[in-house]
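Page 47, continued from p. 46.
Same chain as before, 208 aa.
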Amino acid sequence: MIPFETAAVFFSASVALALAPGPDNIFVLTQSALHGRIAGLLVTVGLCTGLMVHTAAVSLGVAVVFQTSPLAFNLLKALGAAYLLYLAWQAFRAGASKLPQGQGAGISPSRLYGRGVIMNVTNPKVAIFFLAFLPQFADPARGSLVLQLFALGAVFMVATVLVFGSIAWTAGLLGDWLKRSERVQVIMNRVAGLVFVGLALRLVTTHR
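Result:
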């Protein structure tokens, strides 16, 4: 359905986009350093679940609403920023004793996974990006556009898992070393809080 050459180009572009500094990979980096490699991988799975939602939205035409409706765009943007500020508030309140000492201990896998899902789904820029990016690699002459877009979304998710998984693993190793000091634990939480605030501000100032 999709030529190998087209899939290869799309995969390369997806890897490059995943490597570019942005809210999602910074989020994975921070969570991995704070809570361990497994936590970062769970967040990554959550983010990819969010990508499934965006892929379905683009494939079925729902994302057009967010491109044409300022109200829908701003509402989703506000929800995403509010969630990031909530995470920042939690990070600022946390002390050394509240930081996990093992791989993802102290915070449930479902919460880590949920953070990734909400982080991705409430980012309207991802929906707009998918709407502009995926169709460029689809060809009506090669069959169902819906199936092609779903296939491209799956390729994008594979690239995301590879890149973000590597980030989670590397940051987790750094986090294991940093968490030996209680003072550094507190500093890491403060840094995480600042990162969340920064991501929220970036999201709020995003334009279509």
